[in-house]
Structures are given as C-alpha cells and as structure tokens.
Amino acid sequence: MNKRIACLLAAAIASVLLSALLWLKAYWQILPQLNIISVIAAHLEIADGAAWWLHGVVATLLYSVLFYWLNAHSADNNYVLRGIVVGLLGWLVIMLFIMPALGFGLFIADISQGPLPAVATLIVHLCYGACLGTCYGYFIGWRPAPE
C-alpha cells in the first residue's frame, strides 16, 4: 500500500478510537467540565455533530502528516514507538496552545482538578499514537518479529 494512504487510513482508524474514548468519557461523566467536543461546538457556534466531524478530520489530517514526516526521517521500523511520539507531540501542542486558547489554561490547570485532566488527555493521546503506529505498520506489511 502507498505510504501516504497508509498514514491517512491509520490516522482515520486512530481517530475513530479516540472518538470512541471521548464518547465513553462523556457517557460515563468522567471530567464533564472537560468535554472538548462541546467546547469546540460552542466556540465555533456549530452543532455537536459538526464538532465531532471537525475533530476527527483535523486529527486525521494533522496526525497523518506528522507521522508521514517522522517516517520519512527515521531509518528504523518501530512504527508503534513513532506513533506514540506523534501522540506525545500532539498532546504537547494541545496543552501548550489549544487548551489555553479555549480557556482551560496551560495543561488544563484552570478547571481545578489537579493533574488528572492533563494525565488523562496524555493517556488518550498515547493510545491514539500506539493505534496509529500499529495500523500503519499493518497496512504496509510490517509484522512484529516472533519471540
């Protein structure tokens, strides 16, 4: 499979996983004051469904481009680790720029929940990155070495 298409497909699948985790978080009322989809919808004055779609498309496009760029500049084939690095970089950008712009402060400090929101968001992004790297590797034919 073409590596660009593999990046897009892997990022799309990881975005579906991320969306499922966000939906479960909202359904179980975990950190209800940090419902990023509702915040996006309110700031852009769009419906929640449009905010879900926008979040998925932006995540798919930006993360696939970053992952493709990292692959082009790496000689090894540790796609899962590379995906985790992409997730970590995305999390840092969100914590340093997006969350303060949305009124949550650096590392979501302004919702008075201690480190839990930042750590929970980090875990979700690391899961996203691991899924991205695993799917990409699968799409291009990479398989882990048997033990």
TrEMBL record:
Query: What InterPro entries does the database record attribute to this sequence?
Result: DUF6789
Q: Which Pfam families match?
A: DUF6789
Q: Any transmembrane segments, and where?
A: 50-71, 83-109, 115-139
Which keywords are on file for this protein?
Membrane, Transmembrane, Transmembrane helix
Q: So which domain of life are we looking at?
A: Bacteria
Name the species this protein comes from.
Idiomarina xiamenensis 10-D-4
Protein name, please? Uncharacterized protein
